[in-house]
Amino acid sequence: MFLTGIVVSSTTGRSDGVRGKLLVGGLAQLVACALLLFVGARSGIWLLVAIAVVVGIPQGLISLANQKALYHQADPERMGSSAGLLRTFTYVGAMVAAAAGGTFLSGGADTTGCTASPCS
Q1: Which pTM value belongs to this model?
Q2: Contact 62, 22 (CB under 8 A)
Q3: Would residue 32 be called left, alpha or beta, if left means φ above 0 and alpha means ψ between -120 and 50 degrees?
Q4: 104 inside domain
Q5: What is the SS3 string spanning the chain?
Q6: Is the pLDDT of residue 14 over 90?
Q7: Are 44 and 93 within 8 A, CB to CB?
């Protein structure tokens, strides 16, 4: 996943476009989510690798596009604080997502289906 992100960001990083990167990154996220529907107990490693590769595309595109948009729109006098806020809220979003995942999967995650009492 991180190798795909590095390749994607290094090949698209010099272009000035933001909207195209966000659109392609969003579509790649949707494709990755659709591929997750096919993961099961008997899934081959090739499917997991393919999903990791697809997830690396938005990892390389979306953060790069957000940084380019920030550098294009922020006042030069406030560039440092704007970049700091972008990074701060990126980390806050990651922490909220981790907490939500821990809450929603507190009963465990397996391939047999939901056996926890809230799912009954």
Answers
A1: 0.74
A2: yes
A3: alpha
A4: no
A5: CHHHHHHHHHHHCCCCCCHHHHHHHHHHHHHHHHHHCCCCCCCCHHHHHHHHHHHHHHHHHHHHHHHHHHHHHCCHHHHHHHHHHHHHHHHHHHHHHHHHHHHHCCCCCCCCCCCCHHHC
A6: no
A7: no
pLDDT tens per residue, range 34-67: 999 998 888 899 999 999 999 999 999 998 899 8
Structural domain contains residue 112 = no
| Residue 75 covered by a domain | yes
87 within some domain: yes
Which burial class, exposed, middle or buried, applies to 40 when counting CB atoms under 10 A from its CB (0-12, 13-18, 19+)?
exposed
Domain span holding position 60: 2-94
pLDDT one-digit tens code per residue, 71-80: 889 999 999 9
Specify the number of domains making up the chain.
Answer: 1
Q: Is the pLDDT of residue 8 over 80?
A: yes
pLDDT band at 97; cut points 50, 70, 90: very high
Residue that wins the pLDDT comparison between 113 and 5: 5
